[in-house]
Amino acid sequence: MGAQGKPSNSVNPMQRVKVYRLNDDGKWDDRGTGHVTVDYLERSEDLGLFVTDEEDNETLLAHRIRSDEIYRRQEDTIISWRDPEYSTELALSFQEATGCSYIWDNICNVQRNMHFNSLSDLEIGPRPAVETLEASGTSQAHDEPYHSVNSELRELPAVELSTLPLILKTVMESDVADQMRVTELIVHSPNFFTKLMDLFRICEDLEDLDGLHTIFKIVRGIFLLNSPHIFEKIFGDEIIMDIIGSLEYDPEVRHVQHHRGFLKEHVVFKEAIPIKDPSVLSKIHETYRVNYIKDVILPRVLDDATISSLNSIVHANNAIVVSSLKDDNTFIQELFARMRSSTISAESKKNLVLFLHEFCNLSKSLQLAQQMRLFRDLVSEGIFDILTEVFRSQDKRLILTGTDILILFLNQDPNLLRMYVTRQEGNALLGLLVKGMITDFGENMHCQFLEILRSLLDSYTLSGSQRDTIIEIFYEKHLNQLIEVIVLSCPPKGVDHKVAQSLCFGEKDKNQGVIKPEILSNILELLCFCVHHHPYRIKCNFLFNNVIEKVLFLTRRREKYLVVAAIRFVRTIISRHDEQLLLHIVKSNLLKPIVDAFVANGNRYNLLNSAVLELFEYIRKENLKTLIRYLVDTFWSQLVEFNNLPSLLALKVKYDQVSLSLSLP
Predict the structure, then answer these.
(1) What's the alpha-carbon Rg for the chain, to the nearest Å?
(2) Angstrom distance (rounded) from CA 479 to CA 529
(3) Tally of domains within the chain
(4) What kind and span of H or E run contains 433?
(5) What does the alpha-carbon distance between residue 4 and residue 85 come to, in Å, rounded to a whole number?
(6) How far is the C-alpha of 2 from the C-alpha of 407, rounded, in Å?
(7) Long-range pairs for 296-305 at CB < 8 Å and ≥24 separation?
(8) 156: left (phi over 0), alpha (psi -120 to 50) or beta
(9) Confidence of residue 503 (pLDDT cuts 50, 70, 90)
């Protein structure tokens, strides 16, 4: 509901603020410390913000609240705005976040009243509020606390066709304290919603659009009261479809919406496994309706506080559903028994996997300890065996769902998947993950495989035998598979890329010949990851299998970002400062493809140019003498035409210094 009422003039730490004003130099001047209230401006019916000095009670600020969207809430304790009357930026810094929320709610409420007052003058007729206030002696309103016309509300108007405008006015034209009173009356009225929905059906039968539009506004206003007790009534099975029906008649939308028809005819509730508990089914249906109203019917109407409350309902319902299902041992056992069955259809198995994914995803609503227990129970039931079979499927959506489930497990506890992969029966899953990374599914699914593999191979979170086992399996069985994809996707030197594909691939491997560049980029990213995390393994593998040379085949690709990625891969290796690898680079002349690509790029200033220059600059700054001498001795005749570039000029100077130091006795 927000704040509980209007601030009084009494000293309250919750309302203590500092007033700041932006000066001409762009700096905030401290104008003093005081206490803020919302009250009527002197000799005016307009409401404003008043800040009174806490020491001498002088007025530090008197600002008329405007209907314009000029106010901003920053972090939890600051409200700022640009005052159009004085063309200056002002800010209030609150001592406590609750005070900031309190005043912010008051500002929003005043703006909403201003908005609906202007609407009511057009739709309902002129308001008698001013006359009422004046007759009751509120001409001295600046000396009295702010109250609206509903402050003395004892009961709701009778729910009748003739009183719909009055009900709308009661719901919408009230301050924060009055909203609480309206909410209380609605909650404790046993038949308010029943009668209102009866009127809705009557208006719909009579095609009374004015009445339907008014009922829409009433229901919308009731949603904005943001009361959990009201939401409990609204989302009950008895009236929810009528509530949704009333929201079909938005006066700001030209055509009537057909939400009920969509929910009844197009929304089908699928039970992969029959759910026998009616309370669980009720929560599932309620959750769908809450999301439908929040995301489809009223997304442009609901404020942040109401959306947060509706999300809380969804979160709580999800927790109840998952808790009930996880505690039902027969349900979990039946689910996995069906997934292992060889007699069920492919469509049924797909629905079961989709349900399993939804079940795991909803478990995020549980407390952390309960989530851990659930995921361990699922592992005990054999979920990774099920997912291994999923990755053997040809169904792209099913494989994508499988990766989503694995990522949920990795986010919860990576060791569950790592322990499985280290076992004999888990080796196949690791191989399928590598295969998935280099397979073109037509979507960006290879990125998810990359994320999973990086988590499995992360040496910073692995320990002991588990780390050694996973890394050994990957390097012995799967790394060469990734390198082979790079080699086969690159044209031989001097051969056009398209011609190379027809030469290198027969009919059997035709589909492999068109590996997506994004897949190659992800392979390079994984290789750079391995260089950082497994330097010894990488060193041995790279030296024995000429991996660096094979990766540099990518400099022949026409996609410049792949050329850049290959250069950055070499940069990553050099950053290890491993003398054996540096000597291998020199002996095998491995920087030649990079220099050739740089020279071919000419004077174009692009990512390729920057990547090569950054590599040269790194070699110079780190004083890698082996590479400095190799670069200049071997390639200076090609690079000399670029010696106007500071990086190359500095490299040549460094080379001369190194040569001089070596020649000295």
Answers:
(1) 35
(2) 13
(3) 2
(4) helix 427-437
(5) 30
(6) 38
(7) 296/259, 297/244, 297/247, 297/257, 297/259, 298/220, 298/223, 298/247, 301/220, 301/223, 301/224, 302/223, 302/224, 303/108, 303/224, 303/226, 305/2, 305/226
(8) beta
(9) very low
* Residue 496 CB-half CA count within 13 A: 3
Whole domain around residue 92: which residue ranges? 13-110
Helix (H, G, I), strand (E, B) or coil at 85: coil
pLDDT score of 3 more than 70: no
| pLDDT score, position 176 | 67
Both 98 and 217 in one domain: the answer is: no
Whether residue 102 is found in the same domain as residue 196: no
Please identify which residue in the block is written with the tokens 């780390």: 467
Both 162 and 106 in one domain: the answer is no
Strands (E), 349-396: none
In a domain? residue 183: yes
In single-letter form, the type of residue at position 644 comes to N
Query: Distance between CA 516 and CA 438 in Å, rounded?
Result: 9
* pTM, 2 dp: 0.65
187 and 253 fall within a common domain:
yes
Which helix or strand (DSSP H or E) is residue 205 part of? helix 192-206
For residue 497, the tally of other CB atoms under 10 A from its CB is 13
C-alpha–C-alpha distance, residues 34 and 54, integer Å: 4
Distance from the Cα of residue 554 to its chain's centroid: 34
Can you tell me the distance from the alpha carbon of 594 to that of 608, in angstroms, rounded to the nearest whole number?
10
Domain edge (last residue) among 277, 308, 324: 277
**Residues 106 and 153 placed together within one structural domain of the fold:** no
For residue 645, tell me if it sits in a domain.
Answer: no
259 inside domain: yes
Please identify, among 92, 110, 128, the residue that sits at the C-terminal boundary of a domain: 110
Residue 409, helix vs strand vs coil: helix
Residue 151 has pLDDT above 50, yes or no: no
pLDDT at 323 over 70: yes
* 88-94: strand order across its sheet: 59-64, 47-53, 28-40, 16-22, 88-94, 78-83, 71-74
Residues 153 and 106 in one domain: no
> Could you report the per-residue pLDDT of 604-641, keeping only the tens digit for each?
889 999 999 999 999 999 999 999 999 999 999 999 88
Q: CATH number of the domain that 83 lies in? A: 2.30.29.30
Same domain, 152 and 58: no
Q: Judge contact between 359 and 284, C-beta under 8 A.
A: no
Q: Is residue 336 part of a domain?
A: no
